[in-house]
Amino acid sequence: MTRLLSRTLLGLLVLSILVIGRPAFASDAGTIWRLLDYMAVDYGAAVEQGRVVNEFEYAEMVEFASTARSGIAALPPTAARGELLADAAQLQKMVAEKAAAEVVAAEARQLASDLLAAYPMTLAPSTAPDLARGAALYAENCASCHGATGDGRGPAAANLDPPPIAFTDIERARQRSLFGLYQVIDQGIEGTSMPSFAHLPTADRWALAFHSGSLAFDRAEEGERLWKSDPALRERFPDLAALTGITPAALAGEIGQDKADALTVYLRTNPSVVTDTAGSLVVARQKLADASRAYAAGDRDRAESLALSAYLDGFEPVEPILAARDAGLMSRIERAMGELRAAISRGEPAGVVDERLTALDTLFDEAETALSPEAASDWSTFLGAFTILLREGLEALLIVIAMIAFLRKAERTEVLPYVHGGWVAALVAGGLTWVIATYLIGVSGASRELTEGFGSLLAAVVLLSVGIWMHGKSQADQWQRYIREKLGKALSRGSAWFLFGLAFIVVYREVFETILFYAALSTQGNGGVMLAGGATAIGVLAVTAWIMLRYSRRLPIGKFFAYSSVLIAVLAVVLVGKGVAALQEAGLLEIQPLSAVPRIEILGIFPSVQVIAAQAIAIAAVVIGFWYNVRIAAAYSANVK
User: Is 143 exposed, middle or buried (0-12, 13-18, 19+ CB in 10 A)?
Assistant: First the structure.
């Protein structure tokens, strides 16, 4: 059992790295993307009407086209690499033939877009950049060359060849995305005086990109009016990635140049409005609308996939905040989205599916009201932080305290460091999770649900076996004497590591969910109030732990094992329900709703056939195990007599 648990833990850690780790090829693909972006912007300065007008620039374009092609050939194989190579060869041919600037630019941008699709990179910051920080960094690092206003006439500019870019050149600025600016800031430009600023934190590099990318534009007030008056524009920019990935020129093709310029400066100088849009459930609404169209067209699989994405990508990011402000509404939305997926999976009439979509739309209206800044308060933040940590912490606390009390009863206190090491390691792993989720990449909804689901089920299986074992040891005086006299010998080094693993699993599962909830809460401000709520919950948990440890010392060993076995068995049943529900929310298991069953999350009860069936099986296992223990104990007592 110990070996199995150790292997499972290792597997979970490897899976976590694979799920949330950054691809090794990201930097190479990023370099190629930057070359293509540079070509799209600067090729027009090298060639006009089929003639070379700048030999140096043209030689650079030829070199970049060749480098991009060879770089793509060196990337890890994918299904799309062959087509990327063909397109890169076509781009190289266009440059050699001195094709029109607009044609080369379009080909370079299309190839860059396809490259991103085949070799994904982090396209945007995880939170809205600090624009004041960006301005300060620009004055400190960039103004001497690019000028205080971005006109390219800084004090050091006269001695530089080629001269520094003028960020106020609006024609050039229209061709450059924020992601392109970030790439240049991150990697520098070889052969020029533009250095890499990779030594700066990621957030600072993004702040610089947003600041420098806004210097060429004005009319922010007009952009604000457009943003607030046009829902279609807000849907066009559901997240920061949509903002950082588009050029003003491309946006002009959709809404016109004047509007594009105004909207560009407004969004680049007010990026928080885009993150606020994510909280308005725009993504969820759009995905559900797409699901409705796919279902009406007879594409049930795509409709089901879009409905799942609406939950994982559109609703789950705001779920922690909504749970803190209106837990009942959050539960109703989760249930309604599960029932919608089930209806699509069963192939119900399109009219029935549309009715469910309409009901969800109404619930989303209520949710957006609850999520609005006006609905935020210090009390809601405090209460959310307090209840989340108390709820998640109590489950882990009960199991860890039972383990500690058990070792003390067995007079094996030298094994306690393994238990303490397990929960401390879980806290450290949780801290690393927070760093990854906050500063490196976001943890997707599916990754979160899979981690919670598999972690819960693994812990439930272990707890079921431990609970049945402890119940068996509480049945007879002879077995109690065996515990006192010989259990110490049974606790081998392998068993001690088993306890370490169990403590790690049960605590990390709760820490993982708590951290993601707190990360979402922190984006709403009121950090001090949030920390106060968390500290209060920690205080309550500490008092609870002290009471449990003190009371357990007074219990006779038979009663201790009996009570502990029941407690652990109940927690196992709860975790079974939560694990199955998480896997359903990740789309790994189907959902068959049970309208008559209430949702009681603290007990792991969720209204679906799969959850109730899994919990029924767990309860049956407990009942059979306890009955078998009683029967063995009775037979043993009869033989002794």
Answer: middle
The CA distance from 600 to 331, in Å, is 10
**Domain residue limits, the chain:** 27-118, 131-278, 282-374, 376-640
Tens digit of pLDDT for each residue in 381-432? 787 778 778 877 877 787 788 778 777 776 677 778 888 888 888 888 877 7
CATH class of domain segment(s) 131-278? mainly alpha
Indicate the pTM of the whole model: 0.48
Q: What is the CATH number of domain 27-118?
A: 1.20.120
Tokens of 168: 């106020």
pLDDT tens for 27-49 read 477 778 778 877 887 788 889 88
Taking the C-alpha atoms of residue 318 and residue 532, their distance in angstroms, rounded to an integer, is 22
Give mean pLDDT, residues 452-475.
68
DSSP symbol at 282:
H
- Give φ, ψ of 78 to 5 degrees: -140, 170
- Spatial contact of 339 and 366, defined as CB atoms under 8 Å apart: no
Torsions phi, psi for 608 (to 5 deg): -145, 155
Q: Using CA atoms, how far apart are residues 196 and 183, in angstroms rounded to an integer?
A: 9
Task: Provide the 8-state DSSP code for 438.
Answer: I
Phi and psi at residue 125, in whole multiples of 5°? -70, 160
Whether 27-118 shares its CATH topology with 131-278 is answered: no
C-alpha of 251 from chain center: 28
Q: pLDDT (tens digit, 9 = 90+) per residue, 323-364?
A: 777 778 888 898 898 889 888 988 889 888 888 888 888 888
Residue 51 backbone phi and psi in degrees, to 5: -120, 145
